[in-house]
Design a protein that fits this description.
Length: 183
C-alpha cells in the first residue's frame, strides 16, 4: 500500500504540473493562478494539497524505516529538519496571506522573509521533503517527497512569469535585488 500512496502523490504532482504548464502557455485562460479567485479556487487548491501531502505522509508512515536507518539519523536530523521547515513554510504562507498563497492577487509582498528569498515557502517545502525522506527512511516516502520537490521547483518559473505580467516593474525590481532560492 505505501507505493500506492507514493504513486498517488506522484500522479497528482504530474497533473498539477500539466495544469501549470497549460496555464502558463495560455495566461488569458489560466487555471493556475486562477483568473477569478474565490471559494472554488480555495476548495480545489486545498483538496489537491491535502490529498497529495496526505498520501506522501501515508507513503512514509506505512513503510516506516524501510531502509533500516539508525534512529540517530532519522530523529536527530530528519525530524528537526522537517519540523523547522514546516514551521518556516507556515510562517511564509501567513506572511504572504493564505489566499495569496493559493493564487489570489492581493499585491506584491517583498518584505519580511520575502526580502531574503523570492520563494521562502518553496525553499522551506524542499527542506521539508528532505526531512520527511530522512525521517521516514523508505523508498515510498522518497518517491512521494521527490515528486513534491520536483513540482515545487517546476512551478517557480511559471509563477514568476505570472508575477511579471501582474506586477510589471515593481516585480522586475524585486527580482533584480532578491535571489530566487536564497536561504
Amino acid at each position: 500500500m505505501p507505493y500506492v500512496y507514493a504513486v498517488t502523490t506522484a500522479v497528482i504532482c504530474l497533473v498539477v504540473a500539466a495544469v501549470i504548464a497549460w496555464s502558463s502557455a495560455r495566461p488569458e485562460r489560466s487555471v493556475w493562478p486562477p483568473l477569478a479567485f474565490g471559494w472554488r479556487a480555495r476548495i480545489v487548491t486545498w483538496t489537491v494539497t491535502i490529498v497529495a501531502i496526505g498520501a506522501a505522509y501515508l507513503a512514509g508512515r506505512e513503510s516506516w524505516n524501510g531502509w533500516g536507518w539508525p534512529d540517530s539519523v532519522r530523529w536527530f536530523v530528519g525530524f528537526p529538519l522537517a519540523f523547522v521547515a514546516s514551521s518556516a513554510s507556515s510562517y511564509a504562507i501567513m506572511k504572504l496571506g493564505l489566499d495569496q498563497s493559493m493564487g489570489a492577487d492581493r499585491g506584491l509582498v517583498t518584505d519580511g522573509v520575502f526580502a531574503r528569498t523570492r520563494n521562502p515557502t518553496y525553499v522551506a517545502n524542499l527542506a521539508l521533503c528532505l526531512g520527511w525522506t530522512l525521517l521516514a527512511a523508505s523508498w515510498p516516502a522518497a518517491i512521494a517527497a521527490g515528486s513534491l520537490a520536483a513540482l515545487y521547483v517546476y512551478a517557480v518559473p511559471h509563477e514568476e512569469k505570472w508575477l511579471a505580467r501582474t506586477y510589471g516593474k515593481p516585480y522586475e525590481d524585486y527580482r533584480a535585488r532578491v535571489k530566487r532560492w536564497a536561504l
